[in-house]
Amino acid sequence: MGSRYVNITKEEMDRFLIDAQGFEEMDLPYAEVVYQRPAKRDGTFIRIYSSIHKGGRARRSGKDAIRTVLLSKDASEMHHSPDGYKGIKKYKRVHRTKNWRLNLLKRYDSDL
């Protein structure tokens, strides 16, 4: 039997990403809350698409996973995002299960 879905609140996500790791909540034109912080390579950023609506509630089970990407300001990189950054790495998505924090951290930890 697979892991069970858990509801993740914005407060839980803020504590894990903002308070514990120094991410910032971005003001972007997306329906979900987006977090970002600099990565270890100059000019790169880790961005997390939380699957939490800006109104504060997570999407229902099966509707979306937490997605994480590594972005660059370098104009030579490929795959432009809507706000002008270039996607240079897409991490495996994280399902919203009991171990979501550890699973999420494992995705981008090597780039911090």
Structural class: alpha+beta
- Domain count: the total is 1
Distance between the termini: 33 Å
Sheet having the most strands: 5 strands, antiparallel
E-strand count: 5
Q: What is the helix tally?
A: 2
The percentage helix is: 10-25%
Q: What is the mean predicted local confidence, pLDDT? A: 87
Low-pLDDT segments, ≥5 res: none
Shape annotation: globular
Topology of this structure?
Elements: H1 10-21, E1 24-26, E2 32-38, E3 44-53, E4 67-72, E5 86-90, H2 100-108
Antiparallel strand pairs: 1-2, 2-3, 3-4, 4-5
Brief characterization of the structure:
The protein is α+β, with helices and mostly antiparallel strands and 112 residues long. It has one domain (10-111). It contains 2 helices and 5 strands, in the order αβββββα.
Description of the molecule:
With 112 residues, this protein is an alpha+beta fold. It has one domain (10-111). It is 19% helix and 28% strand. The chain has helices spanning 10-21, 100-108; strands at 24-26, 32-38, 44-53, 67-72, 86-90. The model has no long low-confidence stretch (mean pLDDT 87).
Summary tags:
2 helices, five-stranded antiparallel β-sheet, 112 residues, 5 strands, single chain, alpha+beta
